[in-house]
Amino acid sequence: MTHRGTYDRGFLPHRDYFNSLLALTFRLDDSLPRQVIQKWQIELASDPERADDDLHRRIAQYEDAGHGSCLLGEPEHAAIVQATLIAGHPDRYRLLDWCIMPNHVHAMIRLTSGFSLAQILQLWKGGSALQINRLTGRTGRLWGREYFDRLIRDEQHYFRAKRYIRRNPVKAGLCREPEDWPFSSAGIAWDPD
Questions:
Q1: 4, 119 in Cβ contact below 8 A?
Q2: pTM (predicted TM-score)
Q3: Residue partners of 147: CB distance under 8 A and separation at least 6
Q4: Domain boundaries, the chain
Q5: Rg (CA), the chain
Q6: Domain Transposase IS200-like spans what residues (predicted)?
């Protein structure tokens, strides 16, 4: 499959360009109800200049508060997701950074092959869901349908995104230093080269 450029699936725009650098977030299906986002969008509609930034800030705070089942807070589940992320590097994409939170995942990748962004997310979500559902005896949807991606624009943006990903477990009160979080690139001292 070739890269699709900019497209949407009815909710969020996605960017899928060969060799692009992307920061990604995807979450468990039960971690953030759609009606919560819709309520915030209505509240923020009066200030369109700040609406997107304020919405993303609220989403991040809600995610970090640990809503939903937080299945990824179980080490064996987080280990499955981490192994799934690493498995595609470097053949399908370059995995630069990640952290697996109790109810969501942040990752930074460079698209390097003929695999589209949608295919990569399908591999991550589908592969890990199958294993986690088998392990827990669950059935049904594990991951939310949508994911958020942001095209990294320049070096400054790259370092801000990298810092955000690495410090997310610290900010959420899960550890003292990024290196203390075992389900992250910082925690395993990942070297993508």
A1: no
A2: 0.88
A3: 12, 14, 24, 25, 26, 121
A4: 5-31+66-180
A5: 16
A6: 64-168
Domain covering 5-31+66-180: architecture: 2-Layer Sandwich (3.30)
Task: Report the alpha-carbon distance of residue 46 to residue 48 in Å, rounded.
Answer: 6
CB 186 within 8 A of CB 166: yes
Q: Which pLDDT does position 17 carry in this prediction? A: 64
Please tell me the predicted confidence (pLDDT) of residue 143.
Answer: 97
Candidates 160, 122, 143, 148; CA nearest to 72 is 143
d(Cα 95, Cα 133) in Å, to the nearest integer?
25
Find residue 25's DSSP bridge partners.
Answer: 106, 148
User: In the chain, at which residue ranges do the beta strands (DSSP E only) sit?
Assistant: 5-8, 13-16, 21-27, 93-100, 104-111, 148-151
For residue 114, give the DSSP letter.
S
List the strands of the sheet with 104-111, edge to edge: 93-100, 104-111, 21-27, 148-151
pLDDT less than 50: residues of the chain: 7
